[in-house]
Please model this.
Amino acid sequence: MPKLVSRKRSLAKHPVARRSGRESARVYESLRQQILEGLLPAGAHLSQQLIAQAEGTSNGPVISALRRLAFEGLVVHERSHGYRVGEWSESRFDDLLTVRRALETEAARLAARRAGSEDLDRLRHIVARMEELVAEERWGDADAIDVELHVEIARLSRCPGLIEALARCHVLEVVRRRIALNERIVGFSKLADNHRLLVQAIASGDPERAAAVMHGHLAGHRARAKETA
Model:
């Protein structure tokens, strides 16, 4: 198992946090960040004991954090072998995008029906910020705000089940981008323009137009990814 980044805290100073579950959330965020940053590579075994030592906590919060990461697809659990960081093949990412496209198409349809003026202003603000990042050629930050926009559109669906399902897709989308680094550069100059069209479709209040634009947006997204393969 790769060396974990130590984030020890004095448990004696945080008895309430440990009892309330905040300790589990802290461990989850720590492991999630290390996975997304590549500090814990795909396939790496995750020892509960070593994680507990590195995080300065007990096994309970570690187990809860690992279960949450498994639910999101970042780690997998194998009987008799424990947990390991998930491995992401091209076929798995293809499956992910198929599911994501179906879910986000419906999210856009619902957002067109349910988004208010303040919601639309928030989407426009994200696109404006995206445009600034593109102009400054800040690839990583633009990637992050791209995902942020899609998360916001999912939220505007006002459908808890859809939001939860897409949350898992968006986490794995971040992982995919960390692996396929070149994809961020393909068509990058058009990133803000493409998302502006998407926001305009949602703002039109036409559910079918919004759904069609979202579906086409993600279909083009996959086509660009194949260009880098």
